[in-house]
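Could you please consider the sequence and fold appended to this message?
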Amino acid sequence: MKKNIYKHLLPVFLFAFVLSSCDNYLDVQPKGVQVLETVEDYDEWLNSDELQKSLPYALNYLADNIDDEDISNPTESTLERLYTWEYQFSEDITTTPLLWADYYYNIYYFNTVIEGVDGATEGTEEEKASLKAEALLGRAFNYIYLVNLYGKVYDENTANEDPAVPFVTSNDLNTPTPSRGTVQEIYNHIIADLTIAITNLPADNSNNRFRGSVAAAYSLLARTYLYMGDYTKAAQNAQLALDNGPNEILDYSAMADANEIPHLIKRSDIIYARMNKSQYTFSIYPDTIFLQSFDITDLRLNFHYKNLDDYSFSTRARTMYYSYAYTGGSNYVHANWGTTVAEMRLIIAEAAARANNLTKACDELDLVRKCRFPTASYAKYESSIKEDVLQKVLAERTFEFAFNGLRWFDMRRLDAEGRMTAVKRFDGEGSLMSTLSPGSAKYTLQIPIQVLYFNPDWPQNPLN
């Protein structure tokens, strides 16, 4: 029998498996662990730090805008293997698989609500429906990552055959793992979960951006359709997100520095807030070519990067990006890994550029860029050349979403269009260590061997 998706991956859940023969986590009451019984219990479950800070910062190591001058040659750690796009990030089958386990860990949390909240006590049916809708939203959010890590880029001609990941709906630790669904099936599940969620989600999450809302569901549908290459639906849902939720972009030009950026929980430009797991410690050295692509008057450089020197960015591992801006005391300004108003505007801009509606594309682009440059020196970008406008929008995505886990997914879809050049990794001595070539099979990650060990009949993704 196939072993379940959670066992072997999520040690935190195994206490239930060890302490009880019961099949369902909610049937166990180990000492010191809260059992979910009331609607309030489930509501607190969705407020968990485990969900708010749930995304693996390691995802950035796949991207082309990061540099690691201290890398071992040959590689030694899982992060170094990830950084050089090795087929497996660890050969030790006893280790927790990088990336894969993070997302299924989160899915367990959301499935717990979906499976159990209807039987909760002390709440109304409307409250239960709302909490279930939030859990459907959260589950879909995590599957967007999984299908874009372990399935090929969406192609309507092959999506029904291309293997992706198992779609897990149970929180029972003994439930056998489903087979790998196809790319099409996973996208269908994502869209279905979000569509169902919209009918019962709260209209407003301004008191806590980490919680779900109608706008959050539309924003994730916009991201989903973008990755599917359906730009019309991506733009439609991005606009619906703006129409039903926040619709302003945080204006850096009106701020003295990053200290004035509000906390994510109530930020006016956040649609759906999420943080990475290493939020307080994560820092990264950007690639010098990426840094040199910035306009030096771009306020994002001053707000989120340190050691700018003369802005030439000629020295590796000198300028550092921080995933937060420290504001003194215990107050931190966090980078958002969820969806934002700026992301929706750039999705609309990209869709317009691809449809050759260049005026619309430039207007949407302007709504973002004018909030990222000093007013006195800012000039709106305009062009009548379709490819130039599209490239400007795509470049803006690299600046706006530099290290919040999205760049790898843009690289994948752009590579499928023949728009990616070779990406190379060098050690501290300048020796070439690895190359990610255009069209490489490495744009689709291998299923971790730790997972295949328990599911040997699953097909592995091709190596070339």
